[in-house]
Write a structure and sequence with these properties.
Strand content: 35-45%
CATH topology: Jelly Rolls
Shape: globular
Radius of gyration: 16 Å
Number of helices: 2
Strand order of the largest sheet: 1-2-5-12-7-10
Length: 169
């Protein structure tokens, strides 16, 4: 049996299911400690993960209380959606992937506290996954991570103002 490239990556990189969707594995957690200025307890200075979404998967709307750098590694381009913490402005997206004339770029920073969601940009002629690396500083801690609650005010606003993005809740 021949494995798909996505299956090969899951196996070779020892990826595990991620709570927001897709697959991941932490690859680095700094031994250095940083104390966030917003009153959170000390965190590792920096963390890095592999994160992969298959064609049928998406990263649910969520936010992280630290800056997060997304870097494209391989596969199809990724639509990375972001919106301010209070949903005052329309969500915007960047195409994360190999540089092209359509504005696709290999790296994007999501500022601390912004809502974010992602899904692969798949067509019939392209692949079936996207692999990225995500670096968080101060380092990632699940205490600093929250999903958009399906029954919360943010989800109500998303469904009302941007119904085409509500499937990412």
């Amino acid at each position: 049996m021949t494995l798909t490239r996505a299956q090969q990556l899951i196996e070779a990189l020892h990826l595990q299911p991620h709570p927001e969707g897709g697959w991941y594995r932490e690859t680095f957690r700094s031994g250095a400690v940083s104390t966030p200025v917003d009153g959170r307890p000390p965190r590792s200075a920096l963390t890095t993960i592999y994160f992969m979404l298959e064609a049928h998967q998406h990263s649910r709307w969520h936010r992280v209380l630290s800056d997060e750098v997304w870097v494209f590694l391989e596969g199809v381009p990724l639509a990375l959606w972001t919106c301010d913490a209070n949903l005052r402005t329309a969500p915007a997206h960047v195409r994360l992937g190999a540089v092209d004339v359509h504005g696709t770029r290999p790296q994007h920073v999501v500022p601390a506290g912004q809502w974010q969601a992602a899904r692969p940009i798949v067509s019939h002629a392209t692949g079936d996954y996207t692999l990225v690396a995500c670096t968080v500083a101060p380092g990632f801690d699940f205490a600093d991570f929250s999903f958009m609650a399906g029954d919360g005010d943010e989800a109500v606003a998303m469904r009302h103002h941007w119904p085409d993005l509500a499937s990412l809740i």
